[in-house]
Amino acid sequence: MIFDFNLIRNVYAGLPRKVQEAKRVLNRPLTLTEKILFSHLSPGIPVKDYLRGGDYVDFAPDRVAMQDATAQMALLQLMNAGRSSVAVPSTVHCDHLIQAYKDARADLQTANVTNREVYEFLREVSDKYGIGFWEPGAGIIHQVVLENYAFPGGMMIGTDSHTPNAGGLGMLAIGVGGADAVDVMAGLPWELKMPRLIGVKLTGRLSGWAAPKDVILKLAGILTVKGGTNAVIEYFGEGTETFSATGKGTICNMGAEVGATTSVFPFDEKSASYLEATGRKEVASLARSIVGHLRPDPEAVASPHDYYDRVIEIDLSTLEPYINGPFTPDAAYPISQFARMVEENDYPRKMEVGLIGSCTNSSYEDLTRAVSVVKQAKEDGVGVNAQFIINPGSEQIRYTAERDGILAEFEEAGAVIMANACGPCIGQWKRDDAGGQRPNSIVTSFNRNFAKRNDGNPNTHAFVASPELVAALTIAGDLRFNPLTDTLENDKGQHVRLAEPSGYETPPGGYDVQEAGYRAPSPDGHNKEIIIDPASKRLQKLAPFPAWDGNDFERLPLLIKVKGKCTTDHISMAGPWLRFRGHLDNISDNMLIGAVNAFNNQTNAVRDPETGEYLAVPQLARKLKSQGLGSVVVAEENYGEGSSREHAAMEPRHLAVKVILVKSFARIHETNLKKQGMLALTFADKDDYDKIREDDKISVRGLNRFVPGVNLTVELLHADGSTDAFEAVHTYNKQQIEWFKAGSALNAMGKKSKV
Fold this sequence. Notes:
single chain; 755 residues; alpha/beta; 7-stranded mixed β-barrel; 30 strands; 31% helix; 17% strand
């Protein structure tokens, strides 16, 4: 059984009582976020007015979802947790490891051969521990979750930063690292810093070329990539009722790009319609029966400044289409200004590839709106002037779109239909025309556009837009084209303007699928023995990290001082490296190879303090580790921005990095570092970053009195014998300090289970 109706019935049976109790104790109305959070407190955790952005609170999520790249490490950790089965419903989705190259059929066949060992491991472990398994080709995790598992008022965690996609159905869905997922699957409380609340009031209604994607693209420009850190973005206002559930999912999905803990929309009839269309009529009926508890209280909507920490208002009626990029998702430009920005910044004007898909925009509605543009251009005699790639979001969407003639329309226009998978969005794109380091421009309906993200070329200028705008620009082949004002020349020499896009929120003929790709765990699966070949290059059993030795860190060499943006893509690249996600030692060879060294402005070139020569970052880290030394990484703002991949924390831990010292952290990455027993510190004075020299020896004092709320001291011994000292801030609570002392959260879990 795919749908968990019993789970949802149980949640809804207790939700009204829990919400009323929270309102009684707090003596005030509640936002939707608060209703879901307080109704999911871990047993024994009291209702009280927790400090937003300050207090850590334990929760009990309803379910866990994992994609294949992150599931490997999560399940390897689960195997060490002493469980015979998962404590909450959990699923694994094989969507990240399928490389886009030729077409869906050929690429899926290749993936099943090249990833056979990993897929078999994921199937077997899922079967053993009672985890639902979605086969390669079944679809992208977040679209599959929206179609099958998301429900209003629920709470879930997922080992992918775009888990908030389920907020489109009113679920509080949060991206985490694998260690957090293990906590929940093991039946332990899940810890989260009580989030601040950003209320986004939506008024009016979208029209013309504007799409739901443009709401979050505009908001990314307002909040920037770190403006949502430790906050939930909650949408409210009459404008919310004008979006489809998948449109809302798009908006929530990209909240990850501003660092938000998650994003959520209230339940409405659009939500109910989607639940019914996807075979969950009973869920829609149950949600309608408690609708008041699945929306913010009227007082919060009427006086939002009294209930949200920040309020932003967006008038949908005046919203322009946006294009964001390149190289960062918060470089936001309305279409009316974009052509000028292309010229002023000398971006490659030729639009070479248009890509529609990803977990952000691969729904039936997205495909129909995009294909309406393609179809109208064909009827007007206008050809497509760039390469065109389509990734449907799930097998259900692909099958239905094929049935309804949508895919045939794309293919007639020259588009290639790729597998129901992430593909180019996660760097799984074998692009023959990238030309090495050649500057070029692509436009995608994806969520991220970091350098090298899609095709490995640092000079690919990737821009993010709605699917319909991607279609228009692909037809034009010109980055400066504005379909609202510009015309195109057809095969008769006439100048025509593209008509406004149109589409269907759900299929008029209903969704259909022959084989969804779901495999339920077998009743006797727990008897299976999981065997990992010691000689495997793809999988490796995890050995516990060593516990802290009880001493301050003394005179550690600097591994790298990072300059500028340092995302998880810089720390642990995806693309070809995804094949090593289950082998910690092998994937550690990509540690920080994309980070820019502040002392030479080069990547993957750091100074060996012993010889003075420049080595690859992992090479130097391994050398220092072999000598029994640790090392320190220093970086700037929002370190660890982007994907939830805990490999970016586990690799430094594995290669004996002791301290990550930065100006600020992204939420998920800071948590991942703590879970793996790392010391994650921030400069009390950000100007102290400038004091770090290339040949410094770095000490951290005060670990013998490591307690919450008390700063530690960093001492620098420079090569000339001079010294500097300054304070470093930490956000560790008592439990997290125990993780540090034990060597990791998993070690601490093991100690408790033996007591």
